Amino acid sequence: MTQLHIEALAWAPQERGRAPRPLLQGVDLHVGPGEFVGLIGPNGSGKTSLLRCAYRANPPDQGRVSLGADDIWLRSARWCAQRIAVVLQEFPDEFGLSVAEVVAMGRAPHKGLFDGDSAEDARHVVQALAQVGLAEQRERAFASLSGGEKQRVLLARALVQAPQLLMLDEPTNHLDPRYQLELLQHLRSLGLSILASFHDLNLAAAFCDRLYVIDGGRLVASGTPQAVLTPGLLRQVFGVEALVDRHPLHTYPRITWITRP
């Protein structure tokens, strides 16, 4: 079974005329088989940069990122794309493509350079669009969709890759509450290893098996939502007072932010 291991990772953005300033330092993170792991932290803490190192976009300056026993930076981009799917916050240029054509792009890592779309590819596309509730929109222009619909199309594109590991950067961005819940419930049902960043801590608490908290490029806490989401840690990392109690209908914690008059 697939496992993601990030060990002693460090990374600094390259800035012209300046010495690199580390943005990520000494990061150790693990996602086990079938685990839904959340990455939380304030804006600018390094969440997106860490994900970019983990899905082979930013080469780390130090440390190792491995999938199972394989260092992903010693493998080809194609090898990684056959095993890791990514859903980002920003939307791609669609060049006039339909919804089905955007989703079908997810099959590319499994095909030869000159292979056309097969009946199996079409079946994967239909199935993925049905899973995200967009089966009736398959011929619609991607550019005409709302932000939330585009997000669901990109999830469908990731699913047709048949990945072992799914990474998502703010997966509920652009979505209304209904689709936030439906998306995360669907993700949990997939049985995939998942690493996702979150701004909404209540959603992270409700759906993640474990959380990692990043602040200033370093991991400052990890564990179950119950262990991590404490008033003291939220005050330390986010600079805001919070009431943390148990959700009235479930066992996970519920966060209420405290505003001062």
TrEMBL record:
One of its GO terms (molecular function) is ATP binding. Keywords: ATP-binding, Nucleotide-binding. Pfam families: ABC_tran (PF00005). InterPro entries: AAA+_ATPase, ABC_transporter-like_ATP-bd, ABC_transporter-like_CS, P-loop_NTPase. Gene3D superfamilies: P-loop containing nucleotide triphosphate hydrolases. Residues 4-241 form the ABC transporter domain. This is ABC transporter ATP-binding protein. It comes from Pseudomonas capeferrum.
